[in-house]
Write a structure and sequence with these properties.
A hairpin with a 4-residue loop joins strand 4 and strand 5. This protein has a single domain, classed as Alpha-D-Glucose-1,6-Bisphosphate, Chain A, domain 4 (2-Layer Sandwich). The protein is built from six helices and 14 strands. Helix content is about 25%, strand content about 35%. It is of the alpha+beta class.
């Protein structure tokens, strides 16, 4: 099994934060200062398991035949393994199957430089995602549906020039969200003998 027990801090987050002040905005509620996002569509196959990925507003959605209860035990470890720490957790809510983390400054996530994950514009020194201080908030939650579940992820970010207070919004390229959906399925399927071979590809 790949799943690990949630640290004691997560229990207090589930009770203390819930889905009020600590939670992300509801799905489909764009931030007014965020630049528009390009359309994203993709498909990931794990043998007979097919995950369709689309983007709506700022949320990337993976439609999967796997039930939410099967994916939930792996969600927290996948999010943290992208490059976050337990102290970065803002929401851990088993009732709504939601996890949210926030971190600043960030240099890399998922093993990738921030300019591969975010479009924050450019300056004379290069992509601001690599030259500025980047603050990110990643929210992921699972929504049960009739034929499986939806894996919803939202990556919000802002770039701040060192020593200055000005902040500019960044646009997610959708790559980190797809990493999350992919790794979530690989870990869940690796513990299923029927699909273990497909998950290990």
């Amino acid at each position: 099994m790949h799943s690990r027990s949630a640290p004691p801090l997560l229990l207090s987050l589930a009770v203390g934060c819930g889905l009020t002040a600590c939670a992300a905005p509801p799905p489909g509620a764009p931030r007014p200062d965020s630049p528009p996002q390009e359309e994203l569509r993709d498909e990931i196959r794990y043998g007979s398991v097919i995950v369709d990925i689309v983007r709506e507003d700022q949320t990337t959605i993976g439609a999967t035949p796997l039930p939410a209860d099967r994916l939930w035990p792996y969600l927290i470890e996948v999010v943290l393994d992208l490059g976050f720490e337990t102290d970065d957790l803002k929401v851990y809510d088993p009732a709504s199957r939601q996890v949210a983390v926030s971190r600043r400054p960030v240099r890399r996530l998922g093993g990738a430089r921030m300019s591969r994950l975010l479009d924050c514009g450019r300056s004379v020194t290069g992509p601001r995602a690599d030259t500025h201080q980047i603050e990110v908030r990643l929210t992921a939650w699972l929504e049960p549906v009739d034929r499986g579940s939806l894996v919803r992820t939202r990556l919000e970010a802002a770039a701040r020039r060192r020593g200055l207070g000005a902040v500019g919004a960044c646009r997610s390229r959708g790559k980190l969200e797809i990493m999350l959906v992919d790794e979530l399925h690989r870990r869940a399927l690796a513990d299923d003998p029927e699909h273990a071979g497909a998950a290990a590809r």
